[in-house]
Amino acid sequence: MHKSLRIAAVATACAVAGGALYGAGAATAGQSTANSTHEPYNIGLLVKDIDAYYGTAADANGVYQASPTSPYAKDLASVDKAARKYIDQAARKAHHKGEKPAVVFDIDDTLLLSLDYEKRYNYTYNATTWADYVNRADRPAVFGSPELVQYAEKKGVEVFYNSGLSEAQRSAAVENLKKIGADVNLDTDHVFLKDKANPPSYLSACATPGTWTCTTVQYKSGTRAHIEKDLGYEIIANFGDQYSDLDGGYADRTYKLPNPTYFVS
Ligand SMILES: [Mg+2]
């Protein structure tokens, strides 16, 4: 993930002030409001909405977890259901045509849920704390995603991972993916991570050794182009929690997983 470019919400002070002084934000009798069409959604209320969406609650170890019965879980289940039906059909078609079908998964918040980090740090980002969090290799699964990885493999579809995590984070990422049961093709030929020091030649349009100017879309679509054009696969589906995971082509279909906690351009 190109975390340095992400736009994060900052919450604490606003949440307290908003809740105490203005309640739900609705004007009451005798109050006058600007009726502005430009005032953004109240950030304190947004944080509450996000908590409700995930059903966020601390577990016995104080780790924030999403609820498997939350609206978030239900949204994921409907994406998964549609994706399974499509993968089944698209895989049959591809095999019939003699193509090699593949699926591509982003990692952060597509397979590994970062809710505990986001909630703990009020939806902000810090390179040091983020790196520590990733290296603990203890993130829970995004509900249903490991099962979707296994489903694709069972249907004869090659599974690839396309992540903005760095090469330095490879062992932690692989360990964490194994732990959640996404234990398919976790080798260097299938897990594509960002190598800024030694970028692959297929990214030469935006990266050479020592010079990296690739946007997330350039990096991720460039990697998918490599999988299709150089490795000979037909990417039938691409899964990500950010639009920048999905834009730029080289996938027959894209699946956007929900993530209201940050935006990666
Ligand atoms: Mg992601």
What do these coordinates show?
By secondary structure, the protein is an alpha/beta fold. It has a single domain, classed as HAD superfamily/HAD-like (Rossmann fold, 3-Layer(aba) Sandwich). Helices cover 39% and strands 14% of the residues. The protein is built from nine helices and nine strands. The strands form three sheets. A five-stranded parallel beta sheet has the order 5-4-3-8-9, with helices on both faces. Strands 1-2 form a two-stranded antiparallel sheet. A hairpin with a 2-residue loop joins strand 6 and strand 7 (211-212). Helix 1 (12-22) packs across helix 2 (43-54) and helix 3 (71-96) runs parallel beside helix 6 (145-154). It is globular, with a radius of gyration of 20 Å. The protein starts with 11 loop residues before the first helix and ends in a 9-residue tail after the last strand. Residues 1-5 and 9-25 have low confidence and may be disordered. The structure holds magnesium ion. The site of magnesium ion has 9 residues, from loops. Residues 1-29 form the signal peptide. InterPro entries: Acid_phosphat_B-like, APS1/VSP, HAD-like_sf, HAD_sf. Keywords: Glycoprotein, Signal.
